[in-house]
Amino acid sequence: MSELFDAVDALLASRAVLPPPAERKRLRAAHGLTIDEVATALKVRRATVSGWESGKTEPRPPERDAYARLLDKLAELYPATQADTATPAAAPDAAVPATFTAAPAPAEAQTLSTGEAPEAAVMTATENPQTPAPVAAAPAAVTRPARTARPSSTSRRPGAKKAAPAGTRAGGADPRFENGPLAVVDVDDDGKVLAYCTGGLVLDVPAKSIPALVDWTLREAKLGAPKLSGPGKDADPLIVLTEAALERYGLPVTLTEEEKHAGRIPEGHKVIKQLARAEWKLTKRGFGPWARIYRPATGSERACVQLCIPSWNALDTRHWGTAAQLPPAELARVLGVYASRVMTPRGSTAVTGLELMTVLHPPTRASEPDADGKRHSEHNPGSLGKDAIDPMNWPPCEVPDGHPVLKDLPRFHVRGPGEKLFEEAYDWARPMTEAEYALRYLVGIDINMAFAAGANGLTVGLGEATHVKAPAFDPKLPGSWLVDLSHVDLSRVKVGKEWVNLDGSLLPSPFTPKGERPEGPAWYATPTVAYAVELGYDVAPIEAYVRYETGRYLDGWYTRLRDAYLATMADLGVHADLSPEDFLVAMNGYKDRDPELAIVATAIKATVKGGLGKLRERPRAEGWRPGEPWRALSRPTWRPDIRAAVISRTRINLHRKIVKHASFTGQYPIAILSDCVVYAANGPSPLDFLPYREGKPLPGGFKLGVNPGLVKHEGTQEVLWGEGVREQFNAPTLNLARYIKDGTVTDEDTGE
Question: What is the pTM of this model?
Answer without folding.
Answer: 0.79
